[in-house]
Amino acid sequence: MSSWLALAVLGGLVGLDTTSFPQIMISRPVVAGALTGALFGRPLEGVAVGFLIEAFSLIVLPVGAARYPESGTAAVAATGAYLAAVPPGVHAGPLVLVLAFALGWERLTGSTVVLHRRNNGRILTRGPITALQLERRHLAAMTLDFLRGAAVSVGGGLLGYGLLAVATPYWQLNSLTTAAVLTVLAAAMVGTAVPLFGGLRSRRAPLLVGIVAGVALAMLLP
User: With 60 as the cut, is the pLDDT of residue 43 above it?
Assistant: First the structure.
C-alpha cells in the first residue's frame, strides 16, 4: 500500500513537471521509470521499462497547441504495473505487454491533459480577477494537475497490473525471440528520431560516444 501511495505522489509530480512546474525532466519516460523502479526497490527494471517507452516518445514534439500523448505518467503507471505483477528481473515477454499497455495508456493520459487545460480556461475567466485571485487560481490549477497525474498513474498502474497478471501466462514467444523484437523496435524508433537532432552526419560523434558508453555499461551490469 505504501508503495502505491508513493506512486501516486510521484505520478502527481511527473504530471506537474510535464508543463505546470518545475519542468526538470522527471516527466521523461526513462527518468519517470527509473524513479518508479527506485520506489519499489527495483531501479534496473524501472529503467528498462522507461527506456522502451522513451524510445517511442522521442519523435513526439510537444510544441504549441499540438495534442500529444503524456508519456511521463504512462511510464509511471506501466512501470508500477510491471513491478507489481512480474517477479524480480527483466523478463522480455512482460516487457512487450507492458510497452503495449503504456502506448495505449499514454493516449488516455494525453486526453486528460486536454480536459485539464480547458478547465484552466474556465477557472481563469470566472468573473473579475485581481492579482491575488490570479495567484490563487494558478495554484488551484496546479493542484488539480497534480491530482490528475496521481489519478492516471495509480489507475493505470492497477489496470496494467491486472492485464499483466492475466496476459503474461499466455505469452508464447521464447525470451530470446522476444528480446530481439524489443531491440529492433527500440532501435527503429531511436533511428527515426535522429533527424530531429540534426541528422546522423552532424551527430555522429555523440552517437558513437553513446554507443560505446552503452556497451560498456551493459558489460558492467550483472
Answer: yes
